[in-house]
Design goal:
Radius of gyration: 17 Å
Number of strands: 0
Order of helices and strands: H
Shape: rod-shaped
Distance between the termini: 56 Å
Strand content: under 5%
Number of domains: 1
Largest sheet: none
Structural class: mainly alpha
Helix content: over 70%
């Protein structure tokens, strides 16, 4: 049971990472863009 749960958590974390990565990249790029506009 615990091994199955561990496997499920790994798959879930992979899916979450897949979703969060583009959001993080967009946030980082927009932050850099705003910083470049200020200077």
């Amino acid at each position: 049971m615990s091994a199955y749960l561990k496997k499920g958590m790994r798959i879930l974390s992979r899916k979450i990472r897949k979703i969060l990565r583009p959001i993080f990249y967009y946030f980082a790029i927009s932050l850099l863009f705003c910083r470049n506009l200020q200077f």
